[in-house]
Write a structure and sequence with these properties.
With 150 residues, the protein is an alpha+beta fold. 26% of the residues lie in helices and 30% in strands. It has a single domain, classed as Jelly Rolls.
């Protein structure tokens, strides 16, 4: 990413592979529009049965300006997740928001893989700041001299 940490890359684009998931793209675009937000990153992830996501925080300016959402697409018994001091079961069809500044972890104690769509949106009070950071990063990357320094 031209010498930048992934956690500080603000600009996002649709990948070629995303065209294979028109319903997922439509959901992301419609959700962002309904919340009057600009869609940032999105991905579909799988946590295999018996596996865990170890405690972590999302670091970097990108994450400080955005909230993280999980849409549970597939989860047989509900995935166990802990965020800060709150524990919950994420069941299929549920949409959850997570504060990126809080420590969180997950464990798939079911016998089937769990699949989530994870995406990032800036909260209303950070939207202008996220847009400015994205515009500045895009402008820097368009300038060959800035790219050589970055």
């Amino acid at each position: 990413m031209h010498g930048r940490k992934r956690s500080d890359v603000h600009e996002s684009r649709w990948t070629g592979a995303s065209a294979q998931f028109p319903h997922a793209r439509a959901f992301l675009e419609e959700t962002a529009a309904a919340l009057a937000c600009d869609l940032s990153r999105g991905k579909i992830v799988c946590l295999p049965a018996g596996r865990r996501v170890y405690p972590h925080l999302d670091r970097g300016r990108y994450y400080r300006l955005r909230g993280r959402y999980h849409l549970v697409l597939k989860s047989a018994s509900g995935l166990w997740l802990k965020a800060a001091d709150e524990e919950m079961r994420l069941r299929a069809g549920a949409l959850w928001w997570f504060d990126n500044d809080q420590m969180r972890e997950a464990f798939n104690d079911g016998d089937r893989d769990r699949i989530h769509m994870i995406f990032d949106l800036p909260p209303h009070d950070r939207r202008a700041e996220a847009q400015a950071a994205t515009a500045a990063a895009t402008a820097r990357m368009a300038d060959p001299q800035a790219r050589a320094v970055a």
